[in-house]
Each structure stands twice: as C-alpha cells, then as structure tokens.
TrEMBL record, chain A:
Transmembrane segments: 63-84, 96-121, 142-165, 185-209, 221-241, 279-300
Lineage of producing organism: Bacteria, Bacillati, Actinomycetota, Actinomycetes, Pseudonocardiales
Chief subcellular location: membrane
GO biological process: one example: lipopolysaccharide transport
Localization in the cell: Cell membrane
Name assigned to this protein: Sugar ABC transporter permease
Matches recorded under Pfam families: ABC2_membrane (PF01061)
One of the record's GO cellular component terms: plasma membrane
Family: Belongs to the ABC-2 integral membrane protein family.
Signal sequence range: none
Molecular-function GO terms, alphabetical: ABC-type transporter activity
From TrEMBL, chain B:
Protein name as catalogued: ABC transporter ATP-binding protein
Molecular function GO terms recorded: ABC-type transporter activity; ATP binding; ATP hydrolysis activity
InterPro entries: AAA+_ATPase (IPR003593), ABC_transporter-like_ATP-bd (IPR003439), ABC_transpr_TagH-like (IPR015860), Bact_Polysacc_Export_ATP-bd (IPR050683), P-loop_NTPase (IPR027417)
A GO CC annotation given for this chain: membrane
Pfam families assigned: ABC_tran (PF00005)
Annotated source species: Saccharothrix coeruleofusca
CDD domains attached to this UniProt entry: ABC_KpsT_Wzt (cd03220)
Lineage, top ranks: Bacteria, Bacillati, Actinomycetota, Actinomycetes, Pseudonocardiales
Length: 311, 271
C-alpha cells in the first residue's frame, strides 16, 4: 500500500474552491494541435530573432560573414553548370541559369527535410527547459532556411542578369522539344509558389521531426537517400532529355513524375526561368499540402505532448 | 487570474535505448523514480498521483532528496511535460528558471544574450529593450556586455542570467535550485531583486536544498519522495518533518524578523 499524503495544514489553496477535474486528459485533441501551431506563429518575434541569430552565429568572426552562403552556392552552381553542360552537351547560356535556379530551390527543400528530421532532437535543451509550442522550433528552422534561400537568390539574380539576353526571348533547351516562352511577368508566380513551399516545409518538419524523435533511425535513412533523390530529380538534367534517350520516353517520364520533389521544385523554378508552366505541378503540390498537413496534425494530436518525453 | 491545477497526474518516461535486464538491478536502488518493465519498453515512473492546486499568491517550496521528482514536478507545473495519466491545467504566463545556462550562447555578446533570454522567458523585444539598462546596472558588467559571453567568468554569467531573470514580470515563477554561485556581496543584491520578483509574480514554486532561501521566499511546501507527494502543507511543518528538526530554531532574530516569523520556540543564540 502507498502511504497517504500527509496534510498538516489546510491551505486556502486546498480542496474547497478547486475546480472539477476534467473527465479525461485533454492533451490529445485537434484543438490543442492547432493551438500549438497558432501559438507558435504568434511567437514570431522569438523564432524570427533566433533564425537570424543562427545565420549570424554560423559566420561570426569570419570576415565575409553570411556572404559565404552566397559564395559557396555560386561556386557550386558554376562548377556543376560547367561540368554537366559539357557532359550532356548543353548550351551554357540557358543551362547555367537552369542549374542555378534548380540548385537554389533544391537547397531549400533539402535543408527543410534533413534539418526537419533533427528539429526536436537538436533543440532538446530548450524543449526540456522552456514551455513553448513545439512549432516554434519548426518555424525557426523554416525561417532560417528562407534566409539561406534569400542569400542564395543573389547568385540566381547575377546569373540571370548575365544571360538575360538569352532568357528574355522564346528559347529551347538543347534536346528539349518544348519551346519556353522566356522571362516575363509570369516570374512573379515564383513568389506564391515559394510561399507554398514554405507552408509545406512546416508540415514536413513537424511530421518528420516527431517521427524521428521517436525512431532515431529515420534521420540517417533520410540523410543517405536524399543524395540519391538529388540525382533522380531533374536539376543537373532536364526532362526533355528523357524523350531523346529512346523513342519510348514515356516510362522514364513517369518515374520522374512520381518523384514529389520534382513538382515542388518545378512550381518555383519554371517561373524563375521563363519556362513553359504546367498546372499539374501545382495540383500535385496542392494535394501534398492538404495531405501532409492532415498527417502532420494527426501526428501533432497524438504525439505533440510526447515530444518532450522522447527527446 | 493565474492558477495551476493538477489532477491525479503521473509522468512516465519510456526509455527506448535501455536493456531491460540491466535495469532490473537498478529497480532495487533507492534513488530516482520507480522503474517498471512490464511492457516492451522500460518505463521510469517519475511522478505518480500528483494532486496540486495553486492559485494567485501561493509561495510553495519543493523539498526532497535527489531524484525524488522535484525537477520533474516543476516541469509538469510548467507544462513542459503533459501528464501521461491524469490531467493538468495551467493558466498564466510561465517563467521557468531551471538552468541558468539554457538559451545562453557563448559566441554572442552579453546584450544579445539578454535579449534572447528575455524572449525565451515570454517577453517581447520592446519590453526587453526597456530593461537592458536596468540589467546592465544591476549586473555591474559595464563594457563587458558588448563582449562575447565566452569571455565571461562563471560568476559573471550567473550575474547576467540572474539579472535577466529578475527583471521579467512572470505570472508563474518556477525556480530550480542552483542559484548560488555568486559572490556574497552580489548575492545580497540579488536577494532583494529576487524578493521583488517573487512579489511581482502570481505563483512561486521553488525547489531548493537551502533552508534559508526557502524560509525567505516560501510560506508553504511540498515534500517529494520517490515521485510522490509525501506531504503538503505549511512550510515550517513540512520542513520539520522532512529534516526531523525545526528549521526555525537556528535562525538569527534579524532573519526571523525579515521573513516575518516572530514565533521562536525557545531562546536562540543568534548565529
């Protein structure tokens, strides 16, 4: 038998005015899951500050500072562009902007997915010491990735400025039957497209973060597969090539289309390059947004309160 | 109106990476929560059957041995752990001060650390900017505030952390032990600020092994033992049964006067 609690003195705080206990634990409801996300969003000042701090901190004491992000993206894009334009026999004038835009967007996607799996594990100290909505850590991560993206966008701007003459008119990529309309005001579509990407990044980090906190094998799995997916996604090559390889390019195209990251990439990249846009990419991304958020909210409902136990 | 209510709450930790066999030996130990291993995953039962009801004006001290569940209880009351069984309701802005180092970044300056720490404790940027001068004056760090935190000594870090913590306006203040590594003159100053802070806050829960601090800041107490509340009541009664002696009998008259406890059991000899 357990010894009873000894009460020496009836405090005014004791049983008398005490409200009734709720019939059951109320932590597993959609209302709490949604409230977590809403409160996280309201803490903008906190995660906004922390996201900036993460970037500034990474380059503290370096002379060039966050410009390093831009420089490393610039060299990578240039090197990859030169290499693959030779390998695939592509014209550098249109291929370098293509690789740069693709790589800049890919970096954002991959940053959100890989860091998303670590988001709660990496913030163990904060989660155990401060009562904050768990979505704060996710929003901090996505905000940090948005800032990285903004730094990398400089490279894109420079490359497009250099090859503006080639992109400003209807053009074809080498080996691609599609004629692209060239840069126009349609470039503005990249803004809502990127916003949609960020919205998706939040559910990805929430869902993968919760799963990875419980099952620690998930982050290494994701880390090792993501490089494979990089080569499966049309970034250093373009889908036009698939038609050229054989007469029956259809099944190859199907495999490319089955890769969800392709659609996420394409809705942002196509307007950035004045490419022919296809609405089915938007439809796929829209579907993933709804499905993903539903799954993430379900995970939040069931396991949001468990995260602090698992980290 | 701030309040904390906890009904029949338990906190069980699943330990995923432990071998259950070796834990059987541990289960015989006295320190820490009871370790269950009925399921596939061993579980540490850190708290059971906690019933607490706190409201505005409560000043509660937490006492108990190491591993009795004091820190876990504080986290339950902060809402960091939601109970695995039972339920809890916390109304009010919680400012937990468990570890003075959390949220402190050694690479950034003292000023920036003040800002971040404040944001973590639920303040906004404008409120913190108003407090920076006050904190700078209190900590006596002067020009050091614009230096990176890694150049600070341990004592200076504690000063900074205490300066921030004592400048906020919490509704529910949860303090864990470990505020003590500062020099005596500074502690005297911090004591006053701590008193003001406690006065400003609606609810205080303070886990400490220091009788002196407990007597100064609290008026009731909870005694935790093996994850249960062994006793809950007036500070003096709980401390007496926890320590096996009356903690008031060795206090100096000035101290008793300061904490408003004039009732002295027998003539005492001061220090």
């Amino acid at each position: 038998m357990e010894p009873p609690v000894v009460s020496f003195l009836v405090q005014p705080t004791s049983t008398v005015e005490r409200p009734e206990a709720p019939p059951e634990a109320n932590s597993r409801t959609f209302a709490r899951a949604i409230a977590d996300v809403r409160e996280g969003w309201q803490n903008r000042e906190l995660w906004g500050h922390l996201g900036w701090q993460d970037i500034k901190q990474r380059y503290r004491r370096s002379v060039i500072g966050p410009l390093w992000i831009t420089i490393s993206m610039g060299t990578t894009a240039l090197a990859l562009g030169l290499l693959y334009s030779q390998l695939f026999n592509q014209e550098i004038n249109t291929f370098l902007p293509y690789i740069t835009a693709g790589f800049v967007v890919w970096n954002f996607l991959v940053g959100c997915v890989t860091e998303g799996t670590d988001v709660f594990i990496a913030n163990e100290g904060l989660i155990k010491h401060l009562p904050a909505p768990i979505s704060v850590h996710v929003l901090r991560l996505v905000w940090r990735q948005v800032l990285f993206f903004a730094h990398n966008l400089v490279v894109y701007a420079v490359v497009v400025a250099i090859f503006f003459g080639d992109l400003n008119q209807p053009y074809q990529m080498q080996d691609d039957p599609v004629t692209h309309p060239g840069l126009s005001w349609a470039i503005l579509l990249a803004i809502p497209a990127f916003a949609l990407l960020a919205v998706n990044a939040v559910w990805v980090a929430l869902l993968f973060g919760i799963i990875s906190t419980r099952f620690r094998d998930i982050p290494p799995v994701i880390h090792s597969f993501i490089n494979l997916i990089f080569f499966m996604t049309p970034i250093v090559w373009h889908t036009g090539i698939l038609h050229k390889v054989g007469a029956d390019g259809d099944w190859r195209m199907l495999i490319a289309e089955l890769n969800p990251l392709y659609h996420f990439l394409e809705i942002v990249r196509a307007p950035m390059l004045g490419h022919q846009q296809s609405w089915h990419h938007w439809a796929v991304v829209g579907g993933f947004t709804v499905l993903g958020w539903a799954l993430a909210l379900l995970a939040m409902r069931n396991y949001r309160a468990r995260v602090s136990y698992w980290v | 109106m701030v309040s904390i209510d906890v009904w029949n709450a338990s906190v069980d930790f699943p330990i995923f990476d432990a071998k259950s066999r070796s834990l059987k030996k541990l289960a015989l130990g006295k320190v820490g929560g009871k370790i269950g291993s009925e399921g596939r995953v061993p579980i540490i039962e850190a708290l059971h059957d906690i019933n607490v009801s706190l409201k505005d004006g409560d000043r509660v001290g937490l006492v108990g041995h190491n591993g009795a569940g004091k820190s876990t209880l504080l986290r339950l009351l902060a809402g960091i752990y939601e109970p695995t069984r039972g339920s809890s309701r916390i109304v009010g802005k919680v400012a937990p001060v468990f570890d003075l180092g959390v949220g402190m970044d050694p690479e950034i300056s003292g000023y920036e650390n003040i800002m971040i720490r404040g944001l973590f404790l639920g303040m906004n940027r404008r409120e913190m900017e108003k407090r920076v001068d006050d904190i700078a004056e209190f900590t006596e760090l002067g020009d050091y505030l614009s230096m990176p935190l890694r150049t600070y000594s341990t004592g200076m870090r504690v000063r900074l952390a205490l300066g921030v913590v004592t400048s906020i306006d919490p509704e529910i203040l949860l303090l864990d032990e470990g505020i003590g590594a500062v020099d005596a003159a500074f502690l005297e100053k911090a004591r006053n600020r701590l008193h003001d802070l406690v006065k400003r806050s609606g609810i205080l829960v303070f886990a400490s092994h220091s009788d002196e601090f407990l007597l100064e800041l609290c008026d009731s107490a909870i005694w935790m033992d093996e994850g249960r509340m062994k006793a809950h009541g007036g500070l003096r009664e709980v401390l007496t049964s926890y320590k096996g002696r009356d903690p008031f009998e060795n206090l100096s008259p000035e101290m008793l006067e300061r904490i408003g406890q004039s009732k002295v059991l027998s003539g005492n000899g001061g220090e």
